[in-house]
Specification:
Residues 134-445 form the Saccharopine dehydrogenase-like C-terminal domain. With 462 residues, this protein is α/β, with parallel strands linked by helices. The chain has 15 helices and 16 strands. It has a seven-stranded parallel beta sheet, with helices on both faces. It has a seven-stranded mixed beta sheet with strand order 10-11-12-7-13-14-16, with helices on one face. The protein is globular, with a radius of gyration of 24 Å.
């Protein structure tokens, strides 16, 4: 007697095969046999989808234009679950299709107003739309809520929460004066901090930092084995105050990590106006690097571009800031911008990409640092939690790992019925963060927590 054993493969549709999808795809392919998975990796570029799937028997690369409604819906209808690695503003049509065909959805992006508006319908269809499940947002939420929930379970009252994260170059690949290379979207780096004052709360007082002063108001951090870092404030630190249940917390601050000295140097671009994305520079295509630099400086009949730059930025002759500008070749009269109708920010991005691109053998690094201040039994205490993750290479970067792995793990947990709460959500519930953080440790994403003296921002009280 023969017993027919037919395995029903579960289809995972991954839309978008860019840099952030590398570790995600590798993880799910590695689990595909034991978990009965078949991956459909869809991208506008079939070549890119083929490269990421590497002819794996449990993967099918396809070309997909998400603006082609018929193609998009056909792909979603066949899937067991959908992962969208598209830019955030492109998720919404995918999300609506997922509701129509009753498919769960996972993204690493912030929850937009449009996505949030689908919550009622998602719940009505008993679907899970998991968002903000990458690095930042993602691992930051999960690692923070784990400690906050532990403090509360002991009866502690939260006083302070600070959270910092940065995508950097690993120490072994750190070979320029800026101690920085692009490990993610360069445009986001160039435009960081724009669009309004940074807002946070310290000791119960609201604080604001205008963009013009943002990179001169930094906080210093020490990470054992990796040295000293600095952090500048994120635009809105209070966005998650209610979500984290921290409405009464005295201090709430979120920041971006860089190596010490980066922010002071970056501030030169801000003061000159090079990060402005609101207007186009005439004849930018034929402009040289030197002409671009000079376009932000006043006319002088005899002073060179170099002298004018030193004067405007108040750079002394022995100041490392000058060497940092020279390293970028900003005064070269022969290098052309070659970007038509470009904004200052777009031109600056192009110049920096020439100097800050990761080399083939370079590795990147993610640093995350949380501070939790709380009161328990009348005593003020603090826990510092730190995580450092180093990438493998240019493809399987620390950024791709820390963005892609939580997405992949959450996808499997949803498929296997381990995450059950329906609705449009982010990963702040224990059923989500506990198993994901535990499995991430197997991949080197480990938080080291230590108890330190609570200092707060009122030292005169002690």
């Amino acid at each position: 007697m023969f017993v027919l054993n037919i395995r029903i493969m579960r289809s995972v549709l991954i839309i978008g095969a860019g840099r952030s999808a590398s570790s995600l795809i590798r993880y799910l392919l590695a689990k595909s046999e034991t978990e009965n998975l078949h991956l459909v990796v869809a991208d506008l570029s079939l070549a890119l989808a083929e490269k990421k799937t590497q002819k794996h028997p449990n993967a099918t690369p396809i070309a997909l234009d998400i603006f082609n409604t018929e193609e998009r819906r056909a792909a979603i209808e066949k899937a067991s679950i959908v992962i969208s690695m598209l830019p955030a503003h492109l998720h919404i049509e995918v999300a609506k299709d997922c509701i129509q065909f009753k498919k769960h959805l996972v993204t690493a992006s912030y929850i937009s107003d449009a996505m949030q508006s689908l919550d009622e319908e998602v719940k009505k269809n008993n679907l899970i739309f998991m968002n903000e499940i990458g690095l930042d947002p993602g691992i930051d939420h999960m690692s923070a809520m784990k400690v906050i929930d532990e403090i509360r379970s002991k009866g502690g009252n939260m006083l302070l929460f600070e959270s910092f994260c940065g995508g950097l170059v690993a120490p072994e690949s750190d070979n320029n004066l800026w101690n920085y290379k692009f490990t993610w979207a360069p445009r986001n780096v160039v435009l960081a901090g724009q669009g309004g004052a940074a807002k946070f709360i310290q000791e119960g007082t609201y604080k604001y930092i205008p963009y013009s002063a943002l990179f001169r108001r930094t906080e210093f951090l020490e990470v054992e084995g990796y040295g000293k870092f600095e952090a500048y404030s994120n635009r809105d630190s209070l966005k998650y105050r209610s979500i984290y249940g921290l409405d009464d917390v005295l201090t709430l601050y979120r920041g971006t990590i860089r190596r010490v000295g980066f922010s002071k140097a970056w501030n030169m671009f801000v003061q000159l106006g090079m990060t402005d994305d609101s207007y186009v520079i005439e004849d930018s295509e034929n402009m040289s690097y030197r002409q671009f630099m000079n376009s932000f400086l006043p006319y002088h009949p005899t002073d060179s571009v170099e002298i004018k730059t030193r004067f405007i930025l108040k750079i002394d002759q022995d100041d490392i800031m000058w060497d940092k500008l020279l390293e970028l070749d900003l005064f070269n009269p022969n290098k052309k911008i070659n970007l038509p109708n470009a904004t200052p920010a777009q031109i600056l991005e192009k110049i920096l990409t020439d100097s800050w691109a990761l080399e083939p053998d370079d590795k990147d690094m993610i640093v995350m640092y949380h501070k939790f201040g709380y009161e328990l039994n009348g005593e003020k205490k603090q826990i510092d939690s730190k995580m450092v993750c180093i990438g493998d290479d240019q493809t399987y970067t620390a950024m791709a790992k820390t963005v892609g792995l939580p997405v992949a793990i959450a996808t499997l947990l949803i498929l296997n019925g381990k995450i059950t709460t329906p609705g449009v959500q982010l990963p702040i519930k224990k059923e989500v963060y506990e198993p994901i953080l535990k499995e991430l440790e197997e991949y080197g994403v480990i938080f080291n927590e230590q108890t330190v003296p609570y200092f707060g921002y009122n030292p005169d009280l002690f």
